[in-house]
Amino acid sequence: MPKDPDNVQSRGPRHVAIIMDGNGRWAQARGRPRLYGHHAGARRVREVVEACPSLGIKYLTIFAFSTENWKRTQVEVAGLMSLFRRYIVKEARNLAASGVRVRFIGDRVRLDAKLVELMDMLEAETAGNDGVHLTIALNYGGRDEVARATKRLARDVAEGRLRPEDVDEETLPKYLDTRVLPDPDLVIRTSGEARISNFLLWQSAYSEYEFVDTLWPDFTAAELELLCKSYGSRERRFGAVPA
Ligand code: IPE
Ligand code: IPE
Ligand code: MG
After folding, report:
1. Whose CA is nearest to atom 3 of ligand 2?
2. What is the bridge-based pairing of β-strands 59-66 and 208-211?
3. Ligand 1 atom closest to residue 27's alpha carbon, by position in its atom list
4. Does residue 190 have its Cβ closer than 6 Å to ligand 1?
5. pLDDT given at position 10
6. 10 Å Cβ neighbour count for 94?
């Protein structure tokens, strides 16, 4: 019997991406400030990451902060940035010891130097791991990612490293932040909103979607398992007619 979890659940999603939404409403329902919900939300991440191996999930990508989230109040943005720093410091040892490989996607230019230093540290510390590949989207926007990728691609053309006639569907993804990741098989959004809010626009062209009402701080490994099972019964066609 192969021990490789990829073979155990061959019909389950190999790459799950999650739009972790609903922290603010979860806090409001308890009469607490929005940041209380963000802290509760951050605590859910560990259980979800730990559930991945037994569900055959090799890649987990989570949306933590979008390029549009800067529009929130200064108090909320500063609180979130502080939470991200604390999360990395608190979780680094456990993630590294659990064989998790952490990557960050998004534009780091607008993030503060201390946070970027911690992100680099966590990526470096887990670079040798090959368990769950956890990608955290932080100051990430799909349109921003495509724009940054196009800028790099245009530079390669201008400097003679790439010919315009060679640009095709295989070329652009090599310039995206996600260049080393497979496309997500399943994208989950919590909180009842049925929109993708600028998440993985290029990569999710053929992903399956699940929109669930659960607010992110209430999301559990058991719910993830149910969604993976339901994914297993879906028929993915990629534009073809089933045989
Ligand atoms: C998601 O929860 C977390 C972030 C966007 C950072 P929200 O903060 O969007 O929560 P709601 O949607 O207002 O309930
Ligand atoms: C998407 O949620 C971003 C994250 C979960 C980090 P938002 O709450 O920002 O999305 P909208 O504003 O409802 O579309
Ligand atoms: Mg929201």
Report:
1. 66
2. unpaired
3. 14
4. no
5. 53
6. 12
Q: Sheet of 15-19: strands edge to edge? A: 101-105, 133-140, 59-66, 15-19, 186-189, 208-211
Instruction: Give the integer Cα–Cα distance in Å for 96 and 58.
Output: 16
For residues 106 and 178, what is the distance between their CA atoms, to the nearest angstrom?
9
Are the C-beta atoms of residues 169 and 175 closer than 8 Å to each other? no
In DSSP notation, 44-102 reads: HHHHHHHHHHHHT--EEEEEEEETTGGGS-HHHHHHHHHHHHHHHHHHHHHHHHTTPEE
Let me know: does 188 contact 52? Beta carbons within 8 Å: no
pTM score of the predicted model: 0.95
> pLDDT (tens digit, 9 = 90+) per residue, 116-133?
999 999 999 999 999 999
What CATH number does the domain located at 15-141+183-231 have? 3.40.1180.10
Please give the pLDDT value at position 81. Answer: 98
Look up residue 212 and give its amino acid: V
Residue 37 DSSP SS3? helix
What's the average model confidence in pLDDT over 16-39? 98
The structural domains of the chain, with segments of one domain joined by +, span 15-141+183-231
- Cα 242 off chain centre by: 30
CA 21 to ligand 1 centroid distance, Å: 5
